Each structure stands twice: as C-alpha cells, then as structure tokens.
Structure of ATP-binding cassette domain-containing protein:
Amino acid sequence: MTAAVLARDLEVSLGGATILHGVDLTVDHGEVVGLLGANGSGKSTLIRALVGVVPRERGTVELLGKPLGRSVAWQRIGYVPQRTTAATGVPSTAAEVVMSGTIHGRRLLPPRDARSRAQAALEGVGLADRADDAVRDLSGGQQQRVLIARALVRRPELLVLDEPVAGVDLPSQDAFAGALRDLSDRGTTILVVLHELGALTPLVQRAVVLRHGSVVHDGAPPPARGEHAGADHDHIHPHAGDRDQTDETHGLAPSVRWRP
Ligand SMILES: Nc1ncnc2c1ncn2[C@@H]1O[C@H](COP(=O)(O)OP(=O)(O)OP(=O)(O)O)[C@@H](O)[C@H]1O
C-alpha cells in the first residue's frame, strides 16, 4: 500500500535562505505522526511544502499516492494552517464557515446533511453552543477552533494540522483530542505540528523532530512531562542541561531512542 504522505529529499528556500535541507518524511495510512521542533526549525515550512503552498527547490512529494498537483484528491484532505483568522469580510456564522469545508472543486453545493455535520464538528472542538454566532465576534482561539472544525467536517482521509492547539484552552484541547481520536479510530491519517504533545500524547504514535531544517529524530514520541515521576521511567535520555540542544529537540538527541 502506498503511504499517505511521502516526501523525499525535500529542499525549500525562502527569502534567499535554505530552510529545509533534504527532508524525508513518510506517514503511513492510519498513522498519527507529531512533527516537533523549536521555533524556526522549519515545521510550518515543511507542512506548507507538503500541501504545495511553498515551492520546492528539490525533492518530491506524494499525497494519497499522487504527486503533488492537480491529481491529488484534495477533497479527501483536511488542512488547518497555523493560526489565522476564520473571519472574512462576509459576516458568516461559525456553522457557515464550517459548512464551507464540505465544498470543494467538484462539489460546489453543500451536501444535505452539511448543517448536522457542521454541528457535530463544532461539538468536536467544544463550540457547539456558538454555531450561530458571527465568527468575527469569536476570540482568536475560538476562530482557530472553527477552522479545525472546518477541516474535520470533510471527514478527511488525511488531516494535516499546523499547531492546531496553540492558544486553545485546556478543556477545548481535550475536546479536540477526543475528536481526533474518533477520526483516528476510523482510520484517518493525521500529521500534526505541535509544540508539545500535551492532550494529544495518547494519540501520537510517532514523532518526527526537526532542527535547523533537518530531521533529527524519527521514532517514538518523547515521554510526557511528569513521566519522570513514574517508577518504570527509563532514564536513558538526556535531561535539560545535559546537552545544549535539549530544548531545541524537545529533549531528544539524534542518537537517542526510547523504548515504546
Ligand atoms: N516567507 C519566508 N521568507 C523568509 N524566511 C522565512 C519565510 N517563512 C519562514 N521563514 C524562515 O524559515 C525558518 C523556519 O520557519 P517555520 O515557520 O517553518 O518554523 P517553525 O518550526 O514552524 O516555527 P514556529 O514553531 O515558530 O512556528 C525561520 O527561520 C523563518 O524565519
């Protein structure tokens, strides 16, 4: 079976600087992969290159088995960019913005059940009671959750999320984690940029860590904070202060592997 995401030797330059240096990334169908790394390590650039928003200098990308371009089944893919506003010049309600996620190039009218699907998606991000509110009246974090719901409403086969929970409060993060769990249980492939695993810890099966635009770890996710207290915690990884780069790699050094 082909991978859901397959990137090989990806090089991206922006503003005259090389941001990604020969990145390889494979996400298998049904996998949940977290993309981690310090600020500026290239996570968003990688995600944006994968969905074709920024050009590549070199390398190849395939999504759902098709090379990046028109042949990709975009209607089967949900993408949530890094925090932007969901408010447009048009005074739309949260439900309307979410329903727009059911429309794509080949389907210009929302399906009959769009409203109930939108309601369910809003419930998934803890915003069921705000469905009829104008998006511009919602807070920044609430608008971000509307955009997540717009991606969820597609019932995507592949979901790509760029720091979806940044600035989102803990109860809403939990609601969102539950919604992702449901999607994952139904076989959705999820690639998610995160600053820390947080509420998504139980869900993320593999972590890919970027540093200065290169992959420095691809394997087991870092242990949750607080796990140090556990009797069975295995002290084989470096702690803060052990290495200069500890913070940049979320405590992961390139040579370090965790036992699952
Ligand atoms: N349009 C651009 N032009 C020039 N440089 C850019 C552009 N976009 C990003 N960069 C640079 O690329 C590097 C990687 O940025 P990117 O946003 O991919 O990092 P990130 O890991 O997502 O960071 P964060 O965690 O802060 O979101 C940074 O040094 C950034 O300044």
Remarks:
- The chain has five helices and ten strands.
- The two ends are 25 Å apart (CA to CA).
- Residues 64 and 73 are 7 Å apart (CA to CA).
